[in-house]
Specification:
- By secondary structure, the chain is an alpha/beta fold.
- It has a single domain, classed as Rossmann fold.
- It has seven helices and seven strands, in the order βαββαβαβαβαβαα.
- The chain has a seven-stranded parallel sheet with strand order 3-2-1-4-5-6-7, with helices on both faces.
- α4 links the parallel β5 and β6.
- The radius of gyration is 17 Å and the shape is globular.
- It starts with 7 loop residues before the first strand and ends with a helix.
Length: 233
């Protein structure tokens, strides 16, 4: 169980969407400092926010960021990309980029910050998955989210000895620019951010951040062919 008040927090992809909502929620709960990253440089006028340019595909960029944020106590791996082309006919470069950003990116961040979290008392690592980790029909994006779900579960075991709380978050469609063109009911980023931080502070290792995720997880024991994108929305 990790309380946010007084802590130093990292939010990758914190410039907009869910990441921006997480930054707001963390500040509202008393975070002492929040490192908020984007793929290009940006500004934030709030004294507690440190805006940082970060490319999660680059080992050098992640390493430099970890050196800068050596006081971090909580890490939110939120940065991600959605390139929706089909697996069989879409650009393979896009598929590789999706996995590099959504799977290997968070892993690079986790590897760089694990010793920092250990030296700062254990803290927490929070990885954003998706309800699409469990349902078919979302091409490389869903496949990448299934992969990062597995990575998170393995990291939980590897980081247990140093006292790091590892949280995996599942959510359906969120009201952000990323999914603006996808039909279906959406939950506000503010509501999702609130549920994520509630879970973190309650000591959760998994957060089902909306009813869609709750429903889909309950169906995992059923026939795999029923786990489709249509079911999720």
């Amino acid at each position: 169980m990790v309380e946010v008040a007084g802590k130093v927090v990292v939010v990758t992809g914190g410039r907009r969407g869910l990441g921006a909502a997480l930054v707001d929620e963390l500040l509202a709960r008393g975070a002492r400092k929040v490192y908020s990253t984007g793929r290009s440089s940006f500004t934030d006028d709030r004294a507690e926010v440190v805006p940082v340019e970060l490319e999660v595909r680059s080992e050098a960029s992640v390493s430099a960021f970890a050196e800068l944020a050596s006081d971090a106590e909580i890490i939110f791996n939120n940065a991600g990309i959605l390139l929706p082309a089909p697996l069989l006919t879409g650009s393979f470069d896009d598929i590789e980029a999706t996995f590099d950003i959504n799977v290997f990116g968070p892993l690079r961040v986790a590897r760089a910050f694990a010793p920092i979290l250990a030296s700062n008392g254990g803290g927490a690592l929070v990885n954003m998955h998706s309800v699409l980790s469990w349902v078919a029909g979302s091409a490389a994006y869903g496949a990448s989210k299934a992969a990062i779900w597995s990575v998170t579960n393995s990291l939980r075991g590897e980081l247990a000895a140093q006292g790091t709380q590892v949280v995996g978050v599942h959510a359906g469609l969120i009201e952000t620019d990323m999914v603006a063109d996808i039909p279906g009911p959406k939950t506000t980023a503010v509501d999702i951010a609130t549920r994520i931080v509630d879970g973190l502070e309650a000591g959760a290792v998994e957060v089902l951040a909306d009813e869609v995720s709750v429903g889909v997880k309950s169906a995992l024991s059923g026939p795999v062919e029923n786990l489709t994108f249509a079911m999720a929305v």
